[in-house]
Amino acid sequence: MGVLRPLKVIISNYPEGKVEEIVVRNHPRDKKMGTRKVKFTKTLYIEQEDFMEDPPSDYKRLAPDKEVRLRYASVIKCEKVIKDKKTGQVKEIHCSIQPESEGKKSIGTIHWLSADHVVPAKIRLYDRLCIKENPMDVEEGKDFTDYINPNSLEVVTGFVEPFIQKAEIGSRFQFERLGYFNIDPIDSKKDSLVLNRIITLRDSWSKK
Questions:
Q1: Residue-wise pLDDT tens digits, 106-152
Q2: Quick check: 205 pLDDT over 50?
Q3: CB-based contacts of 29: which residues, under 8 Å, 6+ apart?
């Protein structure tokens, strides 16, 4: 798993210093690919986009006084939101682990990483070079350069599981809910990871 834009989550009713090992699948849908263990601790990282202060009614991720399931782990409830005093941006969330019940099957599920067991990585998020499916199908008075996507590359600093730091240069991974990535064969070093997104999990062109 990986977290591209980290938001800190503190589990208020989880013991300080406790570390659990949770068994997760190497592939979310293919059991034949086996399992591995990830650490679970009091402080976690989730994606910034998996939290919203004032969500719509059908929002199934984390929000104040709402519950969400951590992938392979517990159900948590948001109890407190801490903001930066200068910017007003949310900088951390305090949550509590909730008891399991049958009625919680319909809540959303998000991925996470232990803040104490991650390595940082520069992550390049490549998108389509052009904003038009066929950039050569140009309107009168324009050429293909008018359809260049100004957001075809975004670079973020995120976190990934520690084992990726030991993987061979060029290795490929699927980060759950995020897409497929590889270790950059030129710029990545053992102590300075650089990952490239190869493809997202959904193709927006197919919806058109």
A1: 689 999 999 999 999 999 999 888 887 777 777 777 877 887 888 88
A2: no
A3: none
Q: Would you call 106 helix, strand, or coil by DSSP?
A: helix
Considering the domain architecture, whether residues 36 and 136 belong to the same structural domain is answered as no
Q: How far apart are CA 148 and CA 134, in angstroms?
A: 11
Print the domain residue range for 140. Answer: 119-207
| Cβ atoms of 98 and 74 closer than 8 Å | yes
Distances (CA, A) of 42 to 50, 84, 117, 154, 186: 18, 21, 11, 31, 36
Query: Three-state DSSP class for 163?
Result: helix
pTM above 0.70, yes or no: yes
Alpha helices in 19-178 (DSSP H): none
The string of DSSP codes covering 30-60 is -GGG-EEEEEE-SEEEEEGGGB-SS--TT--
Residue 39 sits in the same domain as residue 70: yes
Q: Tell me the two tokens of residue 199.
A: 């493809």
Q: Are both 23 and 109 inside the same structural domain?
A: yes
Residue 111, SS3 per DSSP: coil
Q: Which value, to the nearest 10 degrees, does the dihedral of the CA atoms of residues 61, 67, 69, 73 take?
A: 140
Q: Is the pLDDT of residue 2 over 50?
A: yes
In this structure, of 78-87, 92-101, 123-132, 135-144, the range with the lowest mean pLDDT score is 135-144
Beta bridge pairs of residue 53? none
